[in-house]
Amino acid sequence: MDGFMLPWTTIQAYECDTTSDHNPLLGVLVGDKTSADEGSRTIWPVFTLMLSYIFDYWGKEWNTESYDITYERFISFLTLLKTRCQQHFKLNHARPSIPQSHVKLLDQSRSLAFKAKRKGDIELRKEACRLRNLARFELKNFQKEQLAKQLKERHLSGETSRLFWGKTKRHFHPVSSSLRGFLSPCEEIIKDSQIMANMTADHYERLFEAPVVIRPHPYVDAPPVQWKNAAEPIPMVTYPEIVNILRSKKKEKCLDIHELSPFILDKIPQNYWHLLVQLYHCSFTEGYILKKFKEVRMIFLAKKNAVCSPDQTRSISLLDSFLKVQEKLFHNRFLKILNDHGILPDNQSGFRAGFRLQTRVLLLIEQL
């Protein structure tokens, strides 16, 4: 049967053999604006269960094509599945959940109140009033306990801290202005988003371009540098190493360019990381970075004024969530090389584990 498709709808169909009489579809509706009175939450158990169910499919498809194509398909599927598992609701109808015992007590008092009104029984009315006051007292104590728990866990990752900051951030006052426009060289205010993006891209391309280094006395006849660890193989990526990295990383909820966040890494079944081990190991041995890893979402903040030139902005790059895991893997291997070969001197204390300001002060005292 013919149908219609809205211009903001994305449909992905499963074209292989299936026992169903139709092709399974994953649809994503993307609107132009997000309503301020609507909220959403992701049903993570459904997300994890769906990934566990189709692991055999990805296990067969993982090595059939290049890692660029496979990874692009994989993150596209994760984005579609995450959107499909979202539940939308009206914010004015939403309220925090309360224990079942409190709900039962409220229902009992309400039922007795209706029964007393229908029969005109004074004793039932007194009992309903007693239960209602008891329910209010228990509910007030529960709210106090929840508030104390949120204050205690406000700096930890989880649902409790999210609820706390979601309620308190509306009372915050911004200390820096958001970016609302650029000033052109002729002092003209530009607010077109495409022109602003082009101006920012041109500025940072000039800022980070490769420098021109002039060497007035090149030693052409000098022998090539022989590195001591040239034949040393890069340690293989192992599954336990990735598990340790996932446990130590912060579960942030900032979205990358693929609409995925590091919070999603814990929701992926662990057997998928055996597939990603192959991807990371191939990247290290071949010295190749996936194309999707190079796509970065950038946010620009104004340093002072809301309307300024591009050089008065501060850029924040949100890397791919899976690239952050590979970044930590590379960091561990790089530090091992530095420590094994003694490249860093002992008097360098900045940004090194086990070296602090006190260590540097003691070395200075010994030198004096």
SSE topology:
Elements: E1 9-13, E2 25-29, E3 38-42, H1 44-53, H2 55-61, H3 67-84, E4 86-90, H4 100-119, H5 122-152, H6 159-168, E5 181-183, E6 189-190, H7 193-207, H8 239-248, H9 272-286, E7 297-302, E8 307-308, E9 313-318, H10 321-340, H11 357-367
Parallel strand pairs: 5-8
Antiparallel strand pairs: 1-2, 3-4, 5-6, 7-9
Helix pairs in contact: 4-5, 5-6
Protein name: Reverse transcriptase
Organism: Rotaria socialis
Account of the 3D structure:
It comes from Rotaria socialis. This is Reverse transcriptase. The chain is mostly helical and 368 residues long. The protein folds into two domains: 11-94 and 178-206 and 233-343, no CATH class; 100-171, no CATH class. The protein has eleven helices and nine strands. It has helices at residues 44-53, 55-61, 67-84, 100-119, 122-152, 159-168, 193-207, 239-248, 272-286, 321-340, 357-367, and strands at 9-13, 25-29, 38-42, 86-90, 181-183, 189-190, 297-302, 307-308, 313-318. The strands form four sheets. It has a three-stranded mixed sheet with strand order 6-5-8, with no helix packed on it. α4 runs antiparallel to α5 (122-152) and α5 (122-152) crosses α6 (159-168). The chain is elongated and about 110 Å long.
